[in-house]
Amino acid sequence: MNFQTIQFNVSDDIATLILNRPQVMNALNRQMRAEITEALTRLPAGVRCAVITGSGKAFCSGQDLTDTEAARDLEKTLRDEYEPMLHAVRNCPAPVIAAVNGVAAGAGANLALVADIVIAAESASFIQAFTRIGLVPDAGGTWAIPRAVGAARAMGMMLFADPVPARQAADWGLIWEALPDSEFAEGVAARARQLSQGPTSAFLSIRQAVAESLDNDLEEQLQLEARLQGKAGRSADFREGVAAFLEKRKPAFTGR
């Protein structure tokens, strides 16, 4: 796959997707949205973790405001371009880490928040910048943020459009963790290795269970857990995990 606005590489079962328009803080234009979607929907076989990060000082500043074609019909742009991109992240066949290396604003913040795990550098921040230009939060922000931090904090983020520093975002439960900048790259790499060596099928079932729990009642969720656990109990990784436990060694999961 040849890309112009992202860098994409696979090493040791880990796919790394780097938003690569640093001159505009990795703002999302039509081509970048299409390339992110393509990269994640055509993930090479054997990839067991994907990492999305940004080049330069920013993660992503959101919609490229010079993209006048997209601005002509924002509803169509969201439906035709943003929704496939967000679904590609959410339905990726490997767990996804958003490694937020700098500011994540607008749709850029919400692109990160749709990932399975968000790890940020302490110098990073999250901004629901939409009201600064008279818009409404989109790209899944009004779905993800209230569920993570509650309605009061979500409303404050969206109405005031104030930056939320990474450490505060972690304290609120908006993201998994904030790391000192000097430890960020190593910390993300360690987490990616951990996921890439884990029981991939179980990870994806956990994603499904957590997502559906938001709409299920207890009985529905218990039934879902039973189905997913039945599937996991038939996997090679379960057999390996039990064998490793009994033999007092580290399991060698294959993702199957």
From TrEMBL:
**PROSITE patterns hit by this protein:** ENOYL_COA_HYDRATASE
Per its UniProt record, what Pfam families does this chain match?
Answer: ECH_1
Q: The organism sits in which domain of life?
A: Bacteria
Q: Which InterPro entries match?
A: ClpP/crotonase-like_dom_sf, Enoyl-CoA_hyd/isom_CS, Enoyl-CoA_hydra/iso, Enoyl-CoA_hydra_C
Cite the PANTHER family for this sequence.
EG:BACN32G11.4 PROTEIN, ENOYL-COA HYDRATASE
Q: Which family does it belong to?
A: Belongs to the enoyl-CoA hydratase/isomerase family.
The protein depicted here goes by the name Enoyl-CoA hydratase/isomerase family protein
